[in-house]
Automatic annotation (TrEMBL), chain A:
Part of the ABC transporter complex GsiABCD involved in glutathione import. Responsible for energy coupling to the transport system. It catalyses: glutathione(out) + ATP + H2O = glutathione(in) + ADP + phosphate + H(+). Its main location: membrane. This is Glutathione import ATP-binding protein GsiA. GO terms for cellular component: plasma membrane. InterPro entries: AAA+_ATPase (IPR003593), ABC_transp_ATP-bind (IPR050319), ABC_transporter-like_ATP-bd (IPR003439), ABC_transporter-like_CS (IPR017871), Oligopep_ABC_C (IPR013563), P-loop_NTPase (IPR027417). GO terms for molecular function: ATP binding; ATP hydrolysis activity.
UniProtKB/TrEMBL annotation, chain B:
It is found in: Cell membrane. It comes from the Bacteria. The chain crosses the membrane at residues 28-48, 95-119, 126-147, 153-169, 208-233, 253-276. CDD domains: TM_PBP2. This is Glutathione transport system permease protein GsiD. Residues 87-276 form the ABC transmembrane type-1 domain. Part of the ABC transporter complex GsiABCD involved in glutathione import. Probably responsible for the translocation of the substrate across the membrane.
From TrEMBL, chain C:
The lineage of its organism: Bacteria, Pseudomonadati, Pseudomonadota, Alphaproteobacteria, Acetobacterales. Its main location: membrane. Pfam families: BPD_transp_1, BPD_transp_1_N. GO terms for cellular component: plasma membrane. Belongs to the binding-protein-dependent transport system permease family. It comes from the Bacteria. Part of the ABC transporter complex GsiABCD involved in glutathione import. Probably responsible for the translocation of the substrate across the membrane. This is Glutathione transport system permease protein GsiC. It comes from Limobrevibacterium gyesilva. Residues 95-292 form the ABC transmembrane type-1 domain. The gene is gsiC. PANTHER family: DIPEPTIDE TRANSPORT SYSTEM PERMEASE PROTEIN DPPB-RELATED, GLUTATHIONE TRANSPORT SYSTEM PERMEASE PROTEIN GSIC. The keyword Cell membrane applies. GO terms for biological process: transmembrane transport. It is found in: Cell inner membrane; Cell membrane. InterPro entries: BPD_transp_1_N, MetI-like, MetI-like_sf.
From TrEMBL, chain D:
Pfam families: SBP_bac_5. Belongs to the bacterial solute-binding protein 5 family. It is found in: Periplasm. SUPFAM superfamilies: Periplasmic binding protein-like II. One of its GO terms (cellular component) is outer membrane-bounded periplasmic space. This is Glutathione-binding protein GsiB. The keyword Signal applies. GO terms for biological process: dipeptide transport. Gene3D superfamilies: Dipeptide-binding Protein, Domain 1, Dipeptide-binding Protein, Domain 3, Periplasmic binding protein-like II. One of its GO terms (molecular function) is peptide transmembrane transporter activity.
Amino acid sequence: MRTLRIVHLLYPTSAAPLSQTQALLDVQGLRVTFDTDRGPATVVHGLDLRVSAGETVAVVGESGSGKSVTALAITRLIDYAGGRITGGRIGFTDRAGVLHDLATETPEAMRRMRGPEIAMVFQEPMTSLNPVLRIGDQIAEAVMLHQGVGQAEGRAEAKRMLDRVRIPESASQLDRYPFQLSGGMRQRVMIAIALSCRPRLLIADEPTTALDVTVQAQVLRLIASLQRELEMGLIFITHDMGVVAEVADRVVVMRNGEKVEEGDVQRIFDAPEHPYTRALLAAVPLLGSLADQKLPVPFPVPDGPPPRPQDTVTDQPVLEVRDLVTRFDVRRGLFGRLVGRIHAVEGVSFDLRHGETLAVVGESGCGKSTTGRSIIRLEQPVGGTIRLAGLDVTRLNRSNEPLLRRAVQFVFQDPFASLDPRLTIGFSIAEPIHTHRLLQGPAVEQRVRELLQQVDLPVEHIWRYPHELSGGQRQRVCIARALASEPQVIIADEAVAALDVSIRAQVVNLLMDLQARLGVAFLFISHDMAVVERVAHRVAVMYLGQIVEIGPRQAVMGDPRHAYTKRLLAAVPVPDPRRRAYARDLDDSEVPSPLRAPSDMPTVAPLVQVGPDHYVARHHVGGLY
Amino acid sequence: MSAAAKAAGVQSPLSEFWRRFRRKRIPLVAGGAILLIILAAVFAPWIAPFDPAAPDYENVLAGPSLLHLAGTDVFGRDIFSRIIWGGRVSLSVGFVSVFLGGFAGVALGLVSGFFGGWVDTAAMRFCDVLLAFPGILLAIAVVAVLGPGISNVIYAIAVFSMPVFARLVRGSTLGLKQTVYVQASRSIGVRRFPLVMRHILPGTLPGVIVYLSLRVGTSILTAAALSFIGLGAQPPSAEWGAMLADGRSYLGVADHLTLFPGIAIFVTVLAFNLLGDGLRDALDQKLRT
Amino acid sequence: MLVFLIRRLVGTVPVLVAVSIFVFGFVRLLPGDPARLVAGPDATAQDVAAVRIELGLDGPLLQQYVRYMGQTLRGELGRSAKTRQPVAHEIGARFMPTLWLTVAAMAWALAFGLLVGVISGVRRGRWQDHAGMVMAISGISFPSFWLGLLLIDLFSVRLGWLPTGGYGDWTHFVLPSITLGAGVAAVLARFTRSAFVEVSAEDYVRTARAKGVPERMVVWKHTLRNALIPVVTMTGLQFGFLLGGSIVVETVFSWPGLGRLLIDSVSFRDYPVIQAEILLFSLEFVLINLIVDVLYAFVNPEIRLK
Amino acid sequence: MTRLLPRLVLSAALAAASAAPALAAKDLVIGVEANMPHLDPANTNDTLSQTAERLMYQGLMGFDKDMKLIPALAEKYEASEDAKEFVFHLRRGVKFHDGTPFNAAAVKTNIDRVANPDNRLSRRSLVSMIAHTDVVDEYTVKFVLSSPFGAFVNNMAHPGTFMISPKALAEYGKDIATHPTGTGPYKFVSFATDTLKVVKNPDYWRPGVPKVDTVTFRAVPESGSRFAMLQTGEAQFIYPLPAELVKAAQANPNLAVINAPSIVARYVAMNNMKKPFDDIRVRQALNYAIDKNAYGRIVFSGYSTPMDAPIPSDLGFYSKQGVWPYDPAKAKALLAEAGYPNGFETELWGGTSTAVKRGMEFIQQQLAAVGVKVTVAPLEAGVATAKLWNVQSPADATMQMNYGGWSSSTGDADWGLRPLLYSKSFPPNLFNIAYYSSPVTDRAIEAGLATADPAKRAVAYKEAQAQVWKDAPWIFLGVDRLLAGQSKKLSGVYYLPDGGVLTEDAALD
């Protein structure tokens, strides 16, 4: 990652000082209240926020901090979401130079302002477009409404917008429906809708959170360039400090509905004043920070001793996967005719050693989760062999199934969903013990208490229900449950992805601590390269169901050899405003679909060695490897 | 995880349900009314002022009075007492048929949803076929085979309630099967039967409970309709639909013969529907009628 | 779209086969000898044997079924035990009255249900919503036969505005279709409201507002069009309810339709007619579902284009 | 001579001709209670269809409004002393609706058709005693019987022997049922499900009739709806008028109520061969147990008179026995004497109509008072066929008690007694479901048939009725009143005691 350490000069990162610009938006003392069935709840308390034309203000905070509500309040869409503005003013200077207080505008006046003056892009591209309307019509609608033009003109403008957001073959895309587009494409359409009336203020609410990292980079770049082009004010709402560093001129940090800190982006990253900001930044894994370290190192703990690298790997492989193939047949019609296959996992081979963490990385749909699920047999592989501690568990039978189920455990991504809400924590943890009849009677409860202690949870939690616990605590419960059967391998499928950054670091540290103490091996499936850098001994990069590169973490991340690995790493937002990625060369291409016709079998590229234990797929190009 | 879902997670599902349910007055009132109707039916011998079968030929077709709150019928029997006793028939038809149908439907839905494949296909085609028959038509077919009478009506209604539950439970089983916690339990090797009984069945119950209460109302209406066309309860049973049917030729002469049984049916079914709605709002917003 | 239609048509075949087996099994499930029942009191052993052949109750079961299917496909449904007329003739005369009654009931129920549902959904929590939902929940709780009797009493007998029953010009349709459609109107109103409310919370409705679409268009273009997708399915299911309900309503209003024929046939144990009627009802229901699916695809591009 | 579908006979009344001046006439609508299955008179079992058939068809003999036998298509007849030969002289110049002339050959064609067992016509028993039918000349026909049959002329007035155009018979075959072609006052127009429409026959042989242009029968099973139709003027005549609505009808100044005695008897048949009804004391006890006056008042809102003989008073050769007294104490005593001091449990069958169920409930209540626990079981027509009429031998009979009615549509005591109480009339032959068998009664019934001499027949039937009354094979309940509602504008529609309606002279004001 050293190659990326260049100070960026092309684009100055700080905007003009506030005093020199007429504030486009001037929010003062904003209070927003929701009427819940438990009575009114104020979720934004007296927020001040200024945005000037051409300026990008990032609003940062963890979930529940009130950042999205603020956005809805400014557009007054909050009226339709069950909330009310109960205090403060929202000053907004429109195109004609007239100052409005959006907090008290009539609904009709607000409506006319939404679109040409203020536009929004939302987080979830999959649900933000109307499924029954063609995308051309959805873009043209806004144009026709606000510019009073006819159908043909609206359509022409829609096409121009699609070109502008770099959607290829825009003319034919106009007649397509949202479900026919990928998530990245839909977000581009959303941006096209938002920008179709040339708004003066764009509010982007986590616009890239649901996207893969390479797509995220594309979309971020697109927004930034359009902003410059249109000289819009931009409020960028995110929880991701990496993204903040990429886009913001100024940063507003929110917590529990209040602004805790505000400042120039450089200042915030260099010298955060508020403890919360500091904690937020400390918890953000900085990709490249372990570039010099061969072994994994836990996250530093505030006020704790500096973490030490962990060397836990033995030579003995515990899990050997060879040529694993998992495909999903797509059947249609009455007779279930096979119309295609999703080649989720195609010829994947790797070893996992005792005490080792092998990270599997890649973007959604690359087959990394399916690989994990196929090993634990939540999916049925169609080919390959799996050996567990030397024993063939490819075909499960009465004797080897309990063995596999005991020795390999799985930790899922969503801690809210992975515990049965109707069962106590204690029972959930004890379920593997009961299932495998490991202990009987009071010994079970004793063991559950031990496990709770191992994951740093109070033993009283044994009688609690999942809803009484926070996300981080629940994930600890899941880990305790995974440990209950004394496994040799834990497959962690995006196990920390759903957690807030501060919690994420704790849970990662817990996992590493357990590895150090128990020697358990992890198959660590993740899309988060920075976390992977912390935990992994080795990294496997997957693309379209195949491993394209595998090797020691330091080699793969510091010296990526496969084009895709390079692209993936380049797309990762770096939480350092000095290292903005505008200049990085990113292509706008889409990841191909793993769905293929039944007769169209993919070729599995052979892996060739490029360094010690470091292998790269060599592709068949023009008849040659 | 949205903020709302997180907020909902603060309380246990049961207390959350009770909090939401209690907040609405109407379902509570409806629940109270149902309780009252059930109690009245159970304690009919003590509550009813008259023997529901005792004729009084000197006092026939008398309008409502202080003595006979709902008047008397063609045999001089006290209609109020008959309605109280009739609640036993109408309610047991409602409950028994729906519980029978519900039980069978839940079992079929669980098996169908959990095992999938040809079992699922066969079960769902079977349900399609049953659903392809309008409920009352199916009931008539059953009655045509078995003959009229209240117990056959119960079977008939159970038969056409079954697919409703089967589909509902299959749907939520499919959903629950995909939930992470069920997969988690599968991944640690929990066997099918405990998996279904421990993790899936309880998850389907909220929907089942909502439908149970809604279907009881439907069943009472269907039983009444069958009685009305002469295929339901037989004399001297005081089933409400049969009372309404018997009294209908007196419309314009003695309206109280139909008015009170009609009100009894309406109020009871209404109460079950309101309760069901309240339960749905409190238990599972996604369910629809 | 054509492929979709063909696929959907083929998809109904198993259901129809199952229905035919059910209908075939119907007479064979009966306790006793149906041929004896049908032949009547004066029948001799030869008569009964003849009736048995007429009912297709002779020979091995499989052969019986094949023969039954063959006859059914050729439209030969046998003769009514009661009237000795061909069943097809009996049913044919009653088909249109029931169809029109059902269509009339559905038409007003749909119009009313959608309107009330949308108004309640838009005015959620206000008096319009409460009034609409009180009407709706009363509608599904009211015994339709009682409603019919009350309507006759009020509008025909007391006010003399409308005929009491029978099949004739449009005035004859008013009361029966109101009675028949009331429950369905109520169900559709409730269902439309909940679908509407659900769709209102969708992100794309927020998107529409965010681009400044006027409320009226948000309701009719962005929300209702999506809410209609489940409503269409529900409407199809409700047709079955109407077909069933027509049995009762036709009795109250002396409507010369299939429903009344069915009751008459059941009480006379006129098995050839019952059998044919159940088949017809199911066929109608399957057909309606087919139409609903086509409509469904029409409102839902995802189904149409896949 | 009709085995009543119970619902077809709720009540009855004779039309006292409420004459009114005729204006621009025209369309008479009659609301009836059920659909007519079809219109082949030789295959008809219900009074309603027979009434409808009377619009278009006639027999050799007919009935007037008092149900007196009158000549119709025959002008006169002669019977031999031994009641074995009957000669009918036919009316001349009568034509069927399709133009075919009516003559002796047409009579022979019709009678032969009914008599032919291969045709499986349900009214065959009316003519089964005929050995052969001879065409004497164009307008004279002679019936030679295989055994004496005193009531033969009455059979020739029964709808089962109505005359159908031979040409139409040949043309339509079985489908004659939907193409009625007779000689009657009205011509067939359409018959769709619940509506029968006929139009005036301009060539009708009786001058001056019919006086209305069309007649429509509309089936309205709901009695309330049927009455509503009358109130709104959609119908000018409805029958039966449910007894409970008589008051409402009387309150309406535009309506008239027909209330007249009928020949419809209501009784409970007990299985005389089965315990406990094989004991005459039990049968008598049950007769004592029921208050016949209350029966009429409660079940028929007062429009029923207690039975005072096994047949209604309006049937020929009726012989009064006096109403069976209501005496529950005596009933209990008799039951105790018969070995049932605490009563017994039994089952009562009947039809499914509201009025019939009401009657059954009443009986249930009354018998409960003397300790007899009755389970009420309404049977649909089809089931009743199987369980009552189709039983092959007395031993197979499962019936204990059956509540039913009987209307002798020949108007004669023979058909009021023989099918029900003659020991050779056990099902499946005829309808003696009480399995009553008494040599005295049998002999008397046979004697009544053996002659055409009214005096001799009267003696025989008197003996039979006295014996039946004494043996109490039934619980004798009541004779319906005929009830119908009509517009005051209507005249000339007569309600016959058997529950049929004559519309030939109908006129609208």
